Amino acid sequence: MSDWIQARVVGRQCWAESLYSVQFEAAISDFAAGQYIKVALDIDGERVGRPYSLVNAPGEQPIEIFFNAVPEGPLTTRLAALNAGDTVWMTATASGIFTLESVQPSRDLWLLATGTGLGVYLSMLRSPEPWRLFERVVLVHGVRLGADLAYRETLEAIAQRYLGRLTCVAAVSREAWPPGLSGRITDLLTSGALERHVGLTIDPAHSHVMLCGNSAMIKDTKLILEERGLVRHRRQVPGQYSTEQYH
Ligand SMILES: Cc1cc2nc3c(=O)[nH]c(=O)nc-3n(C[C@H](O)[C@H](O)[C@H](O)COP(=O)(O)OP(=O)(O)OC[C@H]3O[C@@H](n4cnc5c(N)ncnc54)[C@H](O)[C@@H]3O)c2cc1C
Ligand SMILES: NC(=O)c1ccc[n+]([C@@H]2O[C@H](COP(=O)([O-])OP(=O)(O)OC[C@H]3O[C@@H](n4cnc5c(N)ncnc54)[C@H](OP(=O)(O)O)[C@@H]3O)[C@@H](O)[C@H]2O)c1
């Protein structure tokens, strides 16, 4: 049984066509950056709940989620229409193991996201863990169009706070977007263009890689990483890459 509590909408932002963030006031329990809660609405007499990564840092309010309205998606089409003062259901306890807990300290942390997969990394970058465990952090946001590059000002502010330690790269696949890179994350890894751009290489000795978002990207990137000798991270047997699949 889920521990549903009521959450009140206190803010909403539309970043691009079908791309939204919503902020809530809700008394959820402590969580670790990288975890998700479920958000639900009662639709035709049935509670329809879906998992969403938390964008806010642990201990910070409001609670925030970042999502795209999926055409025909029962929940997201309704979440996209929420306004301040509306209420939703939310699980009081966050779940998930896509966190930096038990990850071994190393030199470089690579955070690779497609689309709304960016959200989970905002929570991490706002928490102390990445800065305690790693010297350098590289965030790569893979999107179709430049207009989908949400939270750029937030990322710029974090980069200023950790000057010289955070590199943010936009990988835009369906239009030229200088000064970002053009193409899919996978192609930029295979060609070496991503690592040349950042000035660091991904290898098992120095890197931990996190993958979040589109399942096809995760599947293809895993193969590239495993060819380079990285192995999946497990709580009991630490490795060099971790994944969280949204769809
Ligand atoms: C652990 C976890 C965390 C998640 N966190 C987020 C998050 O932070 N932000 C977010 O946007 N989504 C996230 N998702 C996906 C989310 O739970 C929903 O599935 C999604 O928002 C669509 O909900 P829906 O009810 O409208 O449609 P669903 O009935 O859930 O899905 C309808 C169809 O859309 C596909 N789909 C689901 N999500 C997406 C997407 N993002 N883009 C394109 N197609 C999609 C599904 O594969 C399915 O074919 C997460 C999923 C998991 C498992
Ligand atoms: N973004 C939009 O403009 C837009 C607008 C309206 C609705 N939507 C809907 O929203 C949903 C999500 O769209 P999204 O653009 O956020 O997410 P997405 O389809 O997952 O695309 C995000 C990025 O991931 C890339 N990608 C896809 N498969 C990959 C793979 N196997 N390996 C590496 N990279 C891969 C895409 O490249 P490619 O471009 O090469 O696919 C794109 O750069 C879709 O259902 C879409 O129909 C999107």
Automatic annotation (TrEMBL):
Transmembrane segments: none
Superkingdom of origin: Bacteria
Record keywords, A-Z: FAD, Flavoprotein, NADP, Nucleotide-binding, Oxidoreductase
Reactions listed under catalytic activity: 2 reduced [2Fe-2S]-[ferredoxin] + NADP(+) + H(+) = 2 oxidized [2Fe-2S]-[ferredoxin] + NADPH
Cofactor: FAD
This enzyme's EC code(s): 1.18.1.2
Gene Ontology BP, a term: cellular response to oxidative stress
Residue runs in coiled coils: none
InterPro entries linked to this entry: Cbr1-like_FAD-bd_dom, FAD-bd_FR_type, FNR_bac, FNR_nucleotide-bd, FNR_type-1, OxRdtase_FAD/NAD-bd, Riboflavin_synthase-like_b-brl
Flavoprotein as UniProt keyword: yes
Domain FAD-binding FR-type intervals: 2-101
MF term (GO), any: nucleotide binding
Tagged with keyword Transcription regulation: no
CDD domains, per the entry: FNR1
Record-stated family: Belongs to the ferredoxin--NADP reductase type 1 family.
Protein name in UniProt: ferredoxin--NADP(+) reductase
UniProt source species: Allochromatium warmingii (Chromatium warmingii)
Organism lineage string: Bacteria, Pseudomonadati, Pseudomonadota, Gammaproteobacteria, Chromatiales
